[in-house]
Amino acid sequence: MGLSFPPLTAAQFAKICKIALDEAGLNLLPTKQTMVATRLGRRLSRLAIDSYDEYLALVDAPDSHERLRMVAALTTNVSRFFREAHHFELLRRQILPELIAAARSGQRVRLWSAGCANGQEAVSMAICLLDQEPAAHLLDIRILGTDFDPSVVRYAQLGTYHHSMLGGLTGDQVARYFTKDTSARSYRVDVRITQMTLFRDLNLHGHWPMPGRFDAIMCRNVAIYFDRAHQDALWRRFWSKLTLDGHLFVGHSERVPSGFGYQAHSTCHTAYQRSRA
Ligand SMILES: C[S@@+](CC[C@H](N)C(=O)[O-])C[C@H]1O[C@@H](n2cnc3c(N)ncnc32)[C@H](O)[C@@H]1O
Fold it and tell me: What is the overall mean pLDDT for the chain?
């Protein structure tokens, strides 16, 4: 079947846009119509379905798993260890020393990678923690990674990365925090990282079952897909999930507007601290 699908009709595209907005706040611009046809064409091939109409009927079926899969297929899962490295420098220099001291005195520390893709962001945070406190995994420090795409969450849960995905890590970090598998094509994260991280399915626009607050949230290169209303709702929800002086990191082309109770760090326009009571 390949990728020889006809273009989407205006009605089909409008229907897909509505589902993507309702389910996940995705703002699909008209310029994305070809991209949408290509991505969904791959789903059709995979499911051996011949037409978009047949596919959309499957998406519309009650309790359809394909609804979420369709929306997930419309976003990109690209990530990288230590992506936007200045955030991890800020974390190391200004945020972690205090959090590690708190954890050493018995307090709980929680970090969240929201829209974690294959888990590289959460693993990078774990490496920063272990660099500063090699026994961090024995303290009450946990890093939650969540994504609405079940396939990337499963990947992150396995904790095994193909060697082509190790970009962003130094040789020393690979040696200290990964074990080569027997074929030498994949690298498994250290058990200390596995102990500190937890990966779960979660739609950022759905229910958040986590009871406590987070000391830092990274939600980077995720909100860029959302329309303004869903972005604003997210900044408000993150605010109420942060500890009183918790930190929020967003992607390089994202900004949290003023009026949401955050103050940008003086050295970085995409890192914020909760500022309003
Ligand atoms: C480009 S990746 C960013 C990964 C990582 N945060 C980074 O910056 O490297 C965007 C991720 O956000 C996820 N995502 C998009 N919309 C989402 C939503 N409504 N709820 C949860 N995850 C979502 C996608 O599945 C994808 O894995």
Answer: 95
Distance 147 CA to ligand 1 centre (A): 6
Q: Determine the pLDDT at residue 1.
A: 42
Q: In whole angstroms, what is the distance from residue 33 CA to residue 79 CA?
A: 24
Superfamily the domain 85-274 falls into:
Vaccinia Virus protein VP39 (3.40.50.150)
- CA distances to 12, 47, 199, 204 from 246, rounded to whole Å, are 43, 44, 21, 19
Average pLDDT over residues 158-184: 94
Q: Quick one: CATH architecture of 10-73?
A: Orthogonal Bundle (1.10)
Per-residue pLDDT band for 2 (boundaries 50, 70, 90) equals: very low
Residues with CB under 6 A from ligand 1: 24-25, 72, 75-79, 83, 115, 117, 121, 147-149, 152, 203-205, 220-222, 225, 251
